[in-house]
Give the backbone structure.
Amino acid sequence: MFNFKALPWKPDAATTQRKDVVCSVDVEALHSEISDLEDRESHYKAQLEHVNEILRSSRLSGYLFLRTRWEALPGETPPIDDSEVHDWVQRFVVIQGSYIYLYTSATDLSPRDYTVLSEAIQVGPLPSLTRHEDGETLYCFYILTKAGLRYECSSTSKMQIDSWVAALEKECKFGRP
């Protein structure tokens, strides 16, 4: 019934060599993939450790919508009214030590920008805005620096804005009028 003569008992040299080549290519691809995964894992661990450190050592941190403006210097004409311009970008903002750090996201290892708290000369609320896309209210505040740079910050949570204003007034030794 079975014909054993049709079954090869010894692999020929060409078949063995081809299998070895395919196997070594596959093994190299797997080594490369494992190396890439290990690199990504170490990067994610570094991000996680950084976020953990920020959360443990910061006085206040969280996502805010942010935009920057320049105040008119004495004798300059006031800037144009751009209150209708919606150029808010979301940033992860951190008060840590004597700095305010601005990160693109919480997992970034280095800040996109920062300001020294001692450079802030004024902090206060701004009128709330309504987003046209979804009708949601944005509660706002600002931080004005000695150089005339004004950070305008907003959030959909009034409680979050009140916390930020209170923390900044305390850190910068401001009192509300």
